[in-house]
Design a protein that fits this description.
Shape: globular
Order of helices and strands: EHEHEHEEHEEEHEHEHH
Distance between the termini: 44 Å
Radius of gyration: 18 Å
Number of strands: 10
Number of helices: 8
Helix content: 25-40%
Largest sheet: 10 strands, mixed
């Protein structure tokens, strides 16, 4: 695969005026330049939307869409519907990328002609200070297809290391045009919910042992605060995962034991 690949970078934006500039700049400063940046202002009440509009005026690759607040999942689905790239990447608006993230992914796709690239991340403080690097779950450049995809699902069944959409580059053609409105109120495990079908449909997946995504630990983030809907949301999403285990015919005794151990 030698032709230029166009990436669609999809960013839901909601009340992140402190961080959105660094987020956008980290995309604009990528070493690989063939991308579009789609910003979905999901009803922000601070200056986030205005900051996005200012960037749109300066760079033709940026497209900004404003909507009333519909939640993270629906903002992502809107971004997908507006995307035109060969591959989609998701970026949370309080996080940011290393400069060669798109370059590394482009090179991996060219070598392997794959549908998904999985990569690692670094945790950083609210001020951007490095805290910790995520652990590798596979060896660098490990390839998964129909013969060994169960290995990826075993990681998902027994933990959360591969759940997050922002650590995946995904061929746009395998992202289903599904109606997610029934899930719009989910605030926990929504990344896993969106990842399951994508991983199921991918013909070839490559894992690269490179921590290129900077995941900001914001104290007010929903993932760091107590949420009374956690059990309800996780039960719904894990139920969907169980259905896909059956489709893949990997709902054997060993995998079910891993599944229920982590769920409990």
């Amino acid at each position: 695969m030698s032709e230029k690949i166009k990436f669609s970078v999809l960013v839901p934006v909601y009340n992140v005026e402190r961080f959105i500039t660094e987020c956008i700049d980290s995309v604009l400063h990528q070493t690989y330049r063939n991308f579009e940046l789609i910003l979905i202002d999901d009803g922000s009440t601070d200056s986030s939307g205005e900051i996005c509009d200012e960037y749109e005026k300066k760079d033709s690759r940026i497209k900004v869409y404003h909507q009333s607040n519909k939640g993270h999942i629906m903002a992502r689905r809107r971004a997908i519907s507006e995307a035109s790239g060969d591959f989609c990447l998701f970026l949370d608006s309080d996080d940011y990328w290393d400069h060669d993230l798109l370059g590394a992914i482009y090179r991996t796709i060219c070598i392997h002609d794959c549908d998904i690239v999985l990569f690692k991340y670094k945790r950083v403080s609210e001020n951007g200070d490095a805290l910790a690097e995520s652990k590798a779950v596979f060896r660098d450049n490990m390839v998964f297809d129909e013969d060994n995809k169960e290995e990826i699902f075993k990681i998902i069944i027994s933990g959360s290391n591969l759940n997050n959409l922002v650590f995946k580059a995904i061929k746009r053609s395998i992202i289903r045009d599904s109606d997610y409105s029934q899930f719009k109120d989910i605030k926990n495990a929504e990344d896993l919910l969106e990842s399951i079908a994508i991983l199921y449909d991918a013909q070839k997946i490559v894992y690269i042992d490179k921590p290129m995504y900077n995941y900001r630990m914001v104290s007010s983030s929903i993932t760091h605060t107590f949420n009374t809907d956690l059990a309800k949301d996780v039960t719904l999403v894990r139920g969907t995962l169980l259905q896909y285990m059956k489709k893949l015919k990997i709902d054997n005794e060993e995998n079910l034991r891993l599944f229920y151990k982590f769920y409990m």
